[in-house]
């Protein structure tokens, strides 16, 4: 009996000795800043969303969240930097459809695989694309545009933010569904698209609602349609593509989301997901996103992973059907 008692006491003592060591492991987050990589230059849609989220996340975590703009290659450089960062929960990236889900489908030089090299944390926004017409183009909606495109095949030009972007993919789907052919003119960013559509250098231009909404509201440009399933609250007079019979069922939206490098502690991923969901439920945040035509996301990391899987399958189908390759 004394031997059993001694062993029990010894085991308890050993457990008590181990416990303080485990408790001494530093809790996340430590008193050091987090970095949120933005794969674009300052001032764009993704950057604006990231800075709004970073500010509120910092308040909740009681830690600084520094926005690091890493522009280049359509967002690929910024995402690649995140992929190669230490998976300790202190480096995140505000990813979006292009460099996360499309880039590797059209460019063999992209070496990372976002599905295995990144840990999805939370869907931040979804937002439709708006098709804008140059001044003087004799069409007022998608039906009239399709009629003109059929009358004059391969003559109307449209500007997107680059080959393989969701803006480009949306127009490829539109052309395939409506059986028309337009000329794609890839640009590097929204500001140049806006200037050239306003100046008449191109007939049409595509912008995400967050950029297009003020231009339409201020009557600087005319919108022909939005790519969401229904109309958006900020542009109630602009038809959804799907309202045109030739484009029935059309829906293709852009999205942004926060990721960590693969291998990040699942407990950290869950905590970040909870904090980001709380940020995205804030009235101020939802209002600011809605003003630009974006919808705040919600859900678990698993929900976001499922969303990404479906989106990637859709993009792969479009890329293959349209035979899109990086120029």
TrEMBL record:
SUPFAM superfamilies: Periplasmic binding protein-like II (SSF53850). Pfam families: TctC (PF03401). Keywords: Signal. Residues 1-23 form the signal peptide. Belongs to the UPF0065 (bug) family. This is Tripartite tricarboxylate transporter substrate binding protein.
């Amino acid at each position: 009996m004394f031997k059993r008692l001694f062993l029990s006491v010894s085991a308890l003592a050993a457990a008590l000795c181990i416990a303080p060591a485990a408790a001494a492991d530093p809790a996340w987050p430590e008193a050091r800043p987090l970095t949120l990589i933005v794969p674009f230059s300052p001032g764009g849609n993704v950057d604006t969303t990231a800075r709004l989220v970073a500010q509120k996340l910092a308040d909740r975590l009681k830690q600084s969240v520094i926005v690091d703009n890493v522009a280049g290659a359509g967002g690929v450089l910024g995402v690649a930097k995140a992929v190669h960062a230490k998976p300790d929960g202190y480096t995140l990236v505000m990813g979006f459809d292009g460099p996360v889900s499309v880039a590797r489908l059209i460019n063999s030089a992209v070496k990372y695989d976002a599905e295995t090299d990144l840990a999805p944390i939370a869907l931040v926004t979804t937002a439709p694309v708006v098709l804008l017409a140059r001044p003087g183009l004799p069409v007022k909606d998608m039906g009239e545009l399709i009629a003109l495109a059929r009358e004059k095949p391969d003559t109307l030009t449209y500007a997107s933010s680059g080959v393989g972007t969701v803006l480009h993919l949306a127009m490829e789907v539109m052309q395939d569904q409506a059986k028309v052919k337009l000329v794609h003119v890839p640009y590097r960013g929204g500001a140049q698209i806006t200037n050239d559509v306003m100046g008449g250098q191109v007939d049409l231009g595509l912008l995400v609602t967050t950029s297009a909404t003020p231009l339409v509201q201020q009557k600087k440009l005319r919108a022909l349609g939005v790519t969401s399933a229904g109309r958006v609250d900020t542009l109630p007079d602009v038809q959804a593509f799907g309202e045109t019979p030739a484009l029935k069922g059309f829906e293709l939206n852009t999205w942004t989301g926060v990721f960590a490098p693969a291998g990040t502690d699942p407990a950290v991923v869950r905590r970040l997901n909870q904090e980001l969901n709380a940020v995205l439920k804030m009235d101020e945040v939802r209002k600011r996103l809605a003003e630009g035509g974006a919808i705040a996301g919600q859900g678990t990391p698993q929900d976001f992973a499922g969303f990404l899987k479906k989106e990637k399958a859709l993009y792969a189908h479009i890329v293959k059907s349209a035979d899109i390759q990086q120029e």
